[in-house]
Write a structure and sequence with these properties.
The protein has 13 helices and 20 strands. The chain has about 400 residues and is an alpha+beta fold. Helix 11 links the parallel strand 18 and strand 19.
Length: about 400
């Protein structure tokens, strides 16, 4: 589950991780009031307006309707009002959203941290995620933080450092000091960095996060270390331990079809192809998608109905797949281990009858427990459903359907 910047920062503050303070608002009037409050609290006329969407690259991104960038710095209430007007309700396109962009429903009015002081400022990069190959968490960091971190990783990968953290031991003090040293910090900034990294790792573990990215990780002119931005992704499977965090989910940022599928406990990911897939088991789903490509088609989705497929889940799967106008055929590929194939076949027939006339070809391949009985049910149903037992048979039927 992805979080907005303002949500992630509020969670980090609970672990004593210093962040750029701000106020999330939904209207221009609220943005003006937030600016006045921040100006009073910080005694600084500068403030930052940030679009709140689940995507990076907001600073370079542009709102389609107004051409305004997703992050703007203002020094008056008039500036803030102008930026809020140009961003709120608009569609922000960034390098991570694709051409469709994302609608901006909230903005964050945040304090200015680039104030003058006795020392130079620094923009750094810091993230924590799981290295699946190593089986350990890894802290990735760089002295080259800011909007061009992707280019740094591509052109000068030697500037990206990695610190592996063993899950049984956690982040050790010498590792936090090593990170601060590699950042080139000293004195008060060094001490603050060690505290920041230590507390950030505690937050990562305690929140069951998949990823926390701080960019920029900022050293202020008075040697403070602050999270100016924060992207956070949490493990969906651990949300049962974090009921209060689960409530932060913003479904307006997610694909509506995937949200609907989740309501039926279906694992669904929309793709760009022309053959809809309904499969039980992620491994079988991946193999089915490969088979579709070999047959000359392109998978339109990943849809895993799990090991308890029945008439209700099959019907929900049908409805979700058919919402995609690009789908020219549907392939149902079920292995009957826990679930009996004849029950799935009965579910397909019931769902088909409920949905009425379906114009696109439907191919059903059932293998495993009671596969023969299932094929007989499909063949004798009188419906326009083609059945197969072998994967090669299903592949041939898919090839004909998309030819």
């Amino acid at each position: 589950m992805n979080l907005h910047e303002y949500q992630a920062k509020e969670l980090l503050k609970k672990f004593n991780v210093p962040v750029q303070e701000g106020i999330a608002v939904e209207t221009v009037a609220a943005a003006e009031e937030a600016y006045r409050q921040i100006k009073t609290e910080t005694n600084n006329k500068f403030a930052v307006v940030k679009a709140q969407i689940h995507a990076g690259g907001r600073g370079k991104g542009k709102v389609i309707e107004t051409g305004m960038n997703g992050v703007k710095v203002g020094k008056s209430v008039e500036d803030i009002a102008s930026f809020a007007t140009g961003i709120l309700g608009g569609t922000l396109v960034t390098i991570q959203t694709g051409e469709a962009g994302k609608k901006v429903n909230k903005i964050l009015v945040a304090q200015d941290v680039y104030y003058d002081g006795p020392n130079p400022t620094k923009e750094l990069y810091l993230s924590i995620l799981l290295d699946r190959a190593k089986g350990q968490n890894v802290i990735m960091y760089s002295t080259e933080g800011g909007m061009d971190i992707e280019e740094v990783a591509h052109s000068t990968p030697e500037k990206i450092f990695k610190e592996l953290v063993h899950p049984s031991g956690g982040l050790l003090p010498f590792q936090a000091r090593k990170i601060a040293f590699n950042f080139g910090l000293s004195g008060e900034a060094f001490k603050n960095c060690v505290k920041f990294v230590t507390n950030l790792y505690k937050a990562y573990v305690a929140l069951d996060a998949n990823m926390i990215e701080i960019n920029p990780f900022f050293k202020t002119s008075d040697e403070k270390m602050i999270a100016v931005d924060c992207k956070m992704n949490l493990d969906d499977n651990a949300l049962m331990r974090h009921a209060e965090i689960a409530q932060l989910r913003d479904i307006t940022e997610e694909d509506p079809t995937e949200v609907e599928a989740g309501q039926f406990n279906l694992n669904f990911v929309k793709l760009d192809g022309n053959v809809g897939c309904m499969v039980n088991g992620a491994g079988l789903a991946m193999a089915t998608m490969d088979m579709i490509k070999l047959a000359g088609g392109e998978p339109a989705n990943f849809l895993d109905v799990g090991g308890t497929a029945n008439a209700q889940t099959v019907e929900a799967g049908f409805r979700i797949i058919m919402k995609d106008p690009n789908v020219k055929a549907i392939l149902i590929n079920i292995f009957g281990g826990i679930v009996r194939c004849d029950r799935v076949a009965a579910g397909v027939i019931e769902a088909y009858n409920k949905l009425g006339n379906i114009e696109i070809p439907i191919i059903v391949r059932l293998q495993g427990t009671n596969a023969t009985e299932a094929k007989k049910l499909i063949d004798e149903s009188g419906l326009k459903v083609q059945s197969a037992i072998l994967l090669s048979e299903a592949a041939d039927l898919v090839k004909l359907a998309v030819a």
